[in-house]
Each structure stands twice: as C-alpha cells, then as structure tokens.
Amino acid sequence: MASKVELKINLSGPDEANRLMSDEFFARYMKDDFQVRDVIGACYDTAFEELAAKDLRLRVRKINHMKVADLKDGKTAPNGLFLGRQWLCKFMGAFSVLDKLYERGAPKIELTAPLLPTTAFKYTRYSATLYMPDQVRAELSFDVGDSDAVLGLELLFGMGSELMLFADEFRREFSK
After folding, report:
1. Theoretical Cys-Cys bridge with 41: which of 2, 22, 61, 98, CB 3.0 to 4.6 Å?
2. Does the pLDDT value for residue 2 go beyond 90?
3. pLDDT for the residue 144
4. CATH of domain 2-174
5. Where are the beta strands (DSSP E) in 30-169?
6. Cα 49 to chain centroid, rounded
7. What are phi and psi of 93, to 5 degrees?
8. Within 10 Å of residue 127's Cβ, how many Cβ atoms?
9. 61-96 pLDDT, tens per residue?
10. Distance CA 119, CA 43 (A)
11. Alpha-helical regions (H) of the chain
C-alpha cells in the first residue's frame, strides 16, 4: 500500500492543455520531454455503487499491453486534492481482482453484488517529472480526451505541503 497525494484540475479542454504543456511555469522544473501514451480503461463498481459508498474507486487501465487495476480509498477535496491510499495489481478479471488487491494489503470489502464496468475512458497522457526546490519531485500529467483535459500533479517525493504551495502558485498565475 502506498499513500497518495495527488491534485487534479479540470481544464477547459485540449487547447488549454496544449498551451500549458509548453508554458515556462512547468518547463523550468522539467529535465526531460513529456512521455506520451494512450490510455484506455474502465471504472468498476457494483450495480448498487457499493465501492463508491465506501469512498473506494476501482479503475482498470491498459498500460503497454497489460491491464492494471488500482484501488484507491480516500476523498477528493473541493480544491482537487486527493489524500488517500492506493493498491495496484495485474488485472485478470473482475471476479478475482479484489483477492489480488487484498494480497497487496487493500482492506477487505464485503460486496452484495458482482463488480461491473461502470464507466469507460480513453485519453492520451502526457507526463513528465518536475524537479522542484527542497528535493520535491512530482509527476505532472495532462490527460487529454477528445473534448476534455485534466492536469494532474502527483507527489513522488517530498512534502505534500510543498506540492500544495506549487498548486496555489499555479492557480494564482493562470486564473488571471
């Protein structure tokens, strides 16, 4: 199990994502170009939304020819900050995925109905590591769909408070 500190900001669309990707605000902390990969997948829950009722989210993504499941617990605050935990495993099917996640330390979940795909998604992810002051490292990502885009900042190393200061600086700079 890993703690997860992550911030997601909805953008106005692909054009805004493309503009921000080349902005000096981020470029000053990047050593490498963006890595680009297509992502497809689905979110899973029961017909009764039992995972959502427990503040859990199960997502399956196809990454390089392999399906990976991730289970997150925690909540996203109105400012977009997610504080919680995450477990990952190879996805071999909805029937066995929870057992695989339990082996990795995920909490036991009692469900009354089978897991089903609830929402499908497809986007292109552009990601790069930000090398920030005080040895803070964060993954900057832009998930760009046909008509929508999301900017993500995930803490890789360092203090979460530093990531929040950076996010606040971003909001001040780009809400003008």
Report:
1. 61
2. no
3. 97
4. 2.40.320.10
5. 35-45, 56-63, 66-76, 81-90, 116-131, 137-144, 149-157
6. 20
7. 145, 155
8. 15
9. 998 789 999 999 987 777 777 778 999 999 999 999
10. 5
11. 14-21, 24-27, 50-53, 94-103, 160-174
CA dihedral 38, 41, 43, 44 (to 10 degrees): -160
What residues contact 145, with CB distance under 8 A and at least 6 apart?
14, 121, 122, 123, 124
- What is the arithmetic mean of pLDDT over 161-175? 84
Q: Where are the domains of the chain?
A: 2-174
d(CA 116, CA 133): 43
Q: What length does the chain have?
A: 176
**Would you tell me how many other CB atoms lie within 10 Å of the CB of residue 76?**
16
User: What's the CA gap between 49 and 53, in Å, rounded?
Assistant: 6
